[in-house]
């Protein structure tokens, strides 16, 4: 079994190649973001990051954020969301709840209040359905602040929302008029 340090190292590597730089090890994401598991294991090993199927399965099954998912027969794997490479997410637009949340660092607040939330180098803005998750996300970037998003109002005004495999809400941007700091 992998040590916690090895587990974290492989998980970060998987995030890199499945979300941002698949070409770094020579894999190609298909139109729905899937990669052949055998190819991933072999090409990762050639890049110096070694793991077997059971170790990969353990990482997927125990990741508290459910960052990765297998298809039904575990022959394909993908990152659940957070891609910066252009892909077809395969997600259908959905009606969001009335309110969603976004966690960020307080140092970003003035810019967000002025300009809204933008996806930056990602494909979507990530939103959560609960404040606790938003606080945890914001804590990764500094002193956290939680923003409340008027998601249903945005949806009614024509903005598309998608729900990822790991229950993160996604949208292209959040104009400032739809948010407030809590």
From TrEMBL:
It comes from the Bacteria. GO terms for molecular function: NAD+ poly-ADP-ribosyltransferase activity; tRNA 2'-phosphotransferase activity. Keywords: NAD, Transferase. It holds the Pfam family PTS_2-RNA. This is Probable RNA 2'-phosphotransferase. Its EC number is 2.7.1.-. It is an enzyme of class 2 (transferase). NCBIfam families: PRK00819.1-4. The keyword Cytoplasm does not apply. One of its GO terms (biological process) is tRNA splicing, via endonucleolytic cleavage and ligation. Belongs to the KptA/TPT1 family. Removes the 2'-phosphate from RNA via an intermediate in which the phosphate is ADP-ribosylated by NAD followed by a presumed transesterification to release the RNA and generate ADP-ribose 1''-2''-cyclic phosphate (APPR>P). May function as an ADP-ribosylase. InterPro entries: Ptrans_KptA/Tpt1 (IPR002745), RNA_2'-PTrans_C (IPR042081), RNA_2'-PTrans_KptA (IPR022928), RNA_2'-PTrans_N (IPR042080).
